[in-house]
């Protein structure tokens, strides 16, 4: 009896296979968004200006251009705009694809390829000072904020929500707030530009651990920037090149010291607010493969820097309420003696 049932099932599958008809090939209308919208409406929909889009396209055009025009292939500018629309909405890929008249599969491939192409621009747009002149200029800029000397950067970490990456190590990405994330470390200058980004550590990692495993840490202890300092919060260990506030200030001098550090490191907190308002996908969460997610984070940081270079500092106001930028530091992992305060 079981044999006959198996045969009937197999016959049914064969019949369904023989009767299968492919869906009709359809070509959707594609809108020229560069000419359709004025500058104001364009920035609302793509979060950056047309000038920034053209500048980015000059750098990545050769990497994302199609090799043929057959089958109504997407142009380079369409691929870039589709990716920017995904960054600007944090929506499903199928929604971003509908915006440009392509399928979900095509949208997924485009977002991956364009994000990787933009991320490859990191050595050009995300870099620490290298010359004595650049270091002195940066120190003067930080000194003008709250008179804290020798500072070349403000460091902190922020969590970017992701879907569970799956596999045996998925729980490493669950932070102490209970959701999956990547803990992203950045170093920022006074004009909110990002000078360094590390986007490879799971959400359960502590800020100090990420810092001690980064190239910046080894450059600091090896004296690459001389006696320069980086200001941080109490989640980091106080050291020769990293300064943190007093945990329990005892007098007015220590209170004034804390106030100066807090004001000096304020740009890194503000940069997270501007970055996540400009690209809400970083606040709402990413539902991509882990490698693509890392490329998207770095790409957003690069686009943020290019926008800052073009004086596009204030992204348009959104009609949605974004999650708060929570600073998730597990300070209990460090003792007061480690902070030397």
Automatic annotation (TrEMBL):
One of its GO terms (cellular component) is nucleus. Its cofactor is a divalent metal cation. Keywords: Hydrolase, Metal-binding, Nuclease, Nucleus. Residues 155-305 form the DDE Tnp4 domain. Its main location: nucleus. GO terms for molecular function: hydrolase activity; metal ion binding; nuclease activity. It is found in: Nucleus. Belongs to the HARBI1 family. This is DDE Tnp4 domain-containing protein.
């Amino acid at each position: 009896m079981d044999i006959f049932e198996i045969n009937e099932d197999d016959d049914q599958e064969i019949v369904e296979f023989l009767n299968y008809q492919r869906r009709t090939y359809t070509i959707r209308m594609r809108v020229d968004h560069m000419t359709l919208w004025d500058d104001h409406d364009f920035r609302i929909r793509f979060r950056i200006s047309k000038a920034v889009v053209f500048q980015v396209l000059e750098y990545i055009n050769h990497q994302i251009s199609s090799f043929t025009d057959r089958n109504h292939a997407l142009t380079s500018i369409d691929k870039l705009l589709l990716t920017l629309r995904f960054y600007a909405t944090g929506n499903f890929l199928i929604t971003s694809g509908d915006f440009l008249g392509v399928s979900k599969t095509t949208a997924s491939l485009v977002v991956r390829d364009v994000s990787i192409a933009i991320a490859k621009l990191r050595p050009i747009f995300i870099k620490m000072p290298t010359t004595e002149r650049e270091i002195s200029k940066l120190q003067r800029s930080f000194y003008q904020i709250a008179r804290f000397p020798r500072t070349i950067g403000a460091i902190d970490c922020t969590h970017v929500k992701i879907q569970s990456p799956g596999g045996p190590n998925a729980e490493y990405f669950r932070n102490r707030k209970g959701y999956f994330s990547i803990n992203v470390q950045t170093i920022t200058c006074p004009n909110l530009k990002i000078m360094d980004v590390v986007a490879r550590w799971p959400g359960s990692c502590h800020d100090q651990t990420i810092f001690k495993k980064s190239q910046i840490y080894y450059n600091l202890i090896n004296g690459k920037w001389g006696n320069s300092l980086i200001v941080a919060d109490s989640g980091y260990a106080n050291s020769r090149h990293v300064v943190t506030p007093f945990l329990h200030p005892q007098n007015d001098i220590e209170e004034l010291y804390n106030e100066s550090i807090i004001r000096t490191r304020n740009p890194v907190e503000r940069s997270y607010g501007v970055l996540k308002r400009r690209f809400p996908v970083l606040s709402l969460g990413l539902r991509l493969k882990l490698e693509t997610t890392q490329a998207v984070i770095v790409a957003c940081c690069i686009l943020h820097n290019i926008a800052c270079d073009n004086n596009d500092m204030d992204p348009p106001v959104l009609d949605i309420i974004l999650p708060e930028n929570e600073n998730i530091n597990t300070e209990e992992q460090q003792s007061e003696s480690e902070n030397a305060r």
